[in-house]
Amino acid sequence: MNHAIACEALAKRYGTLAALDGVSACVPRGRVIGLLGHNGAGKSTLIKLILGLIAPSGGRLDVLGQSPWRAHALRRRIGYLPESATFYASLSGRELLDYLARLKQAPRGQAQALLERVGLAHAADRRIGTYSKGMRQRLGLAQALLGSPELVLLDEPTTGLDPQATRELYRIVGELRADGRCVLISSHLLAELEPHIDGALILRQGRLLAAGSLDALGEQAALPARVLLHPRGDAAGELLARLDARGLPAQRRPDGRLELQVPRAGKLPVLRELLADPAVADLDVREPTLAQLYDWLGAGQRSAAEACA
């Protein structure tokens, strides 16, 4: 089984409301995938289905080769960090992990190593009620890693984390990927998420809008690339006129560079031509960001024109 998650025509209805409607997608093992969509898009419903907390209304879902609502032991192979994790305030971090390890039938000896891994070793024996929000979030990550799960689901995992703790979280995510484990991250912080994922599932109103690697999504959207030109000397005016004559109108930026949009189709010939222009000292190519792809594909609130502005 090469896929951690595989679903076909997956549906979940609550009365007349279709929370998920005909979702078909595969998530490979050993990949970090972003689960994206606005509030109400169906992300939480999909996570609950993967965890086996609810049963589908139709379609098929395999998680690590099993049906999650029929194989309760499967949950021991899955780690989950909910968006708003709540723990027993009277327990210490170590006591909580020991307790949850017993419930999950995971080795209790993991508690100390996991607390060290998430930067909580110094507070292992403090009551959780004294933890800051960021510390509780790191404790939530530690409990999600109990039992060395093959699949880890993280729902808004950087909530409450400072920049250093955020970097540490994504370092751990990278380690899980390198170890062949699959990580599914639901987040609205697209710019923060983008460098750390291999691909994305994008939901809108219960339907799968797009799925695939970021390169594949870029090809699907066919957004133009932004090119920043560094004019040589005082050649900016001459270069602007020449670009306009070529059908490549550019704008002058406050920093002196010129910015233009280059269509994805035929991009390489245009870039070669620009590099050969004696008025160009250097150029910088900016591919569409994940946020721009998200908007362009119709998942966000911005229009296509605004997305590439």
Automatic annotation (TrEMBL):
Pfam families linked: ABC_tran (PF00005)
PROSITE patterns listed in its UniProt record: ABC_TRANSPORTER_1 (PS00211), ABC_TRANSPORTER_2 (PS50893)
GO molecular function: ATP binding
ABC transporter domain: residues covered: 5-230
Keyword Repeat annotated: no
Alphabetic keyword roster: ATP-binding, Nucleotide-binding, Transport
InterPro entries associated with the record: AAA+_ATPase, ABC_transporter-like_ATP-bd, ABC_transporter-like_CS, ABC_Transporter_VariousFunc, P-loop_NTPase
SUPFAM superfamilies assigned to the protein according to its UniProt record, in alphabetical order: P-loop containing nucleoside triphosphate hydrolases (SSF52540)
Protein name (database record): ABC transporter ATP-binding protein
Lineage: Bacteria, Pseudomonadati, Pseudomonadota, Gammaproteobacteria, Lysobacterales
